[in-house]
From TrEMBL:
Organism: Dysosmobacter acutus
Protein name: ATP-binding cassette domain-containing protein
Keywords, sorted A to Z: ATP-binding, Nucleotide-binding, Transport
Coiled-coil annotated residue ranges, if any: none
GO molecular function: ATP binding
Amino acid sequence: MLELNHICYSVHDQDGELGILKDISLTIEDHRLVVFTGPNGGGKTTLAKVIMGLVQPTSGQILWNGTDITALGITERARLGISYGFQQPPRFKGLTVRKLLTLASGNEKLPKELCCQFLTKVGLCANDYLDREVDVSLSGGEVKRIEIATILARDAELMIFDEPEAGIDLWSFSRLTETFEQIHSAGTATMVIISHQERIISLADEVIVVGDGSISHRGSAQEILPKILTSTIGSCPVLTKEGAR
Ligand SMILES: Nc1ncnc2c1ncn2[C@@H]1O[C@H](COP(=O)(O)OP(=O)(O)OP(=O)(O)O)[C@@H](O)[C@H]1O
């Protein structure tokens, strides 16, 4: 179980202190699929980075399976079973896709068939990609899918995906949503997916709307989706507290 207690994160700019996350508390039970959505710049990625340990909160506490992990870095959290896929994944010149999957899995002898399965789950044909380097020769959508495959290979207990739909074609997207559904129904991992995509939002057990650094709404996809789809107030409607009233 993941618990965030009164998480705040602020930075200093030329105008003084800028609050980016403002007293966020939430609990995510095991094996749930939770979607963070909301307006651009609302704080979703920062919140995910706080969970992964890429950003240290200014105040507040993070508990993972009852252990306080607030002071732990990304490597220690990864060892505890937390995994994060970047919105814009890095490239690794000199590393092949196969090597990356092998490293992610922690199994030096990861069989080719398993590598193929991970790639198939993100809509990639293994024969075309296993021996390619994860460098600039790959397109943005390809790198994105390869990174998602590494998260699957890691078999983490908590998987955080930051806009997995970004740059991915419709065919691969459909394969990817099936993969999320399969993981969810297998009940083997907790998933936090940052997404603006209706199809992904509809998979969620719970949708958490993050706007202006706070949680403005949370509820089932059935409750939240109609508000997002029908609201026409302002540029990002629903997603203000007033929009909900
Ligand atoms: N280190 C920083 N310094 C200054 N501003 C920052 C910093 N980190 C984040 N921000 C700002 O905090 C806000 C939240 O950013 P974040 O990336 O978390 O939003 P988001 O909800 O993920 O947005 P998007 O949907 O566009 O990906 C943005 O306005 C961003 O510019």
